[in-house]
Request: fold
Amino acid sequence: MDIIKETITAEKCIRIGDAQALVEGTAKLPEGFREIGGVLETSAVCEVLSQTAAQGSIGLEGKVRFSIVYIDKEGEIRAFESECSFIHRAEDERVCPEMQVLASANICECMAKAADEGVFMRALIGIDMICVMNEELMAVTESSVTGKNIEKLVVREKLPRLAACGNTKLYITDEVELPQNLPVCSEVLLSRAYAVLGKTHAEEGKLILEGDIRFFILYRAADKNAPLRFFSGTMPFGEIIQEDAACEELFARLQVERLGVSCENGNTFIVSAVLGVHYICTEWHEASFVSDVYSPLFDCETEQQQLSCGILKNSRPEKRIIRLPLHIPDSYPEAARVLSALGHAQLTAMEKKGDKCELTGVLSLSLCYATADAGIRNIRQNIPFECEAAVPMDADVQIMVEVIETEGAGYELDLKLSLFIDASETVKNESCILTDLSLSPAKEPAEPGIIVYYAGGEETFWDIAKAFRADAAQFMKEDYFAHVPAGKKLLIIRH
Reply:
């Protein structure tokens, strides 16, 4: 028998979404800035600058950019920015140099404190890495496995194939007006943002992405009695990415990598954001291949290989409102009025509850408040929380804090959190492919007859037919891949 082979191609996607890295460093204060009396707020954004795949590992390099607001020893509020570089390596035996890496990083928590002649900065970042490639296998063709005494299991299905992928950047700028109920801005002190992907669409030669940038601005107000004010808003965007191999099956992920905010006339903010985008375009093709063979008259020596393919899909984002209590430590003065509340949410566990998942996480809260004697204090607390979302158990889930509202005064406060839950899942498919075959006359040919067999519960109809080297056609009305219920009586005919 002449064995003919053909190439089977399928997209292979590996996701490593549970990696974290600690980035820290020290920096001197800008020239002319007085020594830190106390840090009021800290924010950070992370940018991955390079990503490479090696045998069994992924290497990343990037930067974390910190924005720090503090009150100096003479009671004046100051703000400045600094940055720390990082290098991270993740080990995974499935990774190979031929893979393209799409990596992004988000801030799980960040802090800053006074250090000798400067400031100490620390950020915990969550790193999401996707490795993708087209995997090729040489499979035995259906036409080369012929003969009335040869049983073959032929699989026909659609397989995904990587059409294109890439890392790129989008540059978004817009004007945002300050609400009339807030005092005018004299100086922008700190800002942070995250991006929400809405609609995605592919046309010939281009990808169209629509979404929102949710931003948060801490500014110095002209009101001397309340010098710190907090303002949040939404900036919609629609952008086009040129991609010759664009196709409808599109996965995309956004990350705010840089953010700049300026104020021109006290009421108008110019918000500029750099979005890091990674995308994967997948096309589908019909494939037919032999998965397994056997014969009552021949001994079959086979080589088989698992083809593991998978694609990433964006899930529909969700919003959740939760309430949490906050106790200001007794060693701190009471809160007369909350000036700002910022936070990062980190997912720690998921548990299936009916058709939803219960998400457990930790809120890293930074609260800045005014005291009764017109002072300003900051507290940082990690607060556990729970919420439900309709996401798959194996999904990669990111939780962003959209808004934190506070109620009350004194030592006991209530927090109202608006959480944005973004999820994506890997849709996997595994197939067994026959990659080589040789036949020789059977040393013990199968004898004709009827066999009574009671299924053990672990076998498929194909497994049973193969085990007894019987004609598989007698199970044509059944699904060859279906498991036979334990104890089911089968009459197996061998011709």
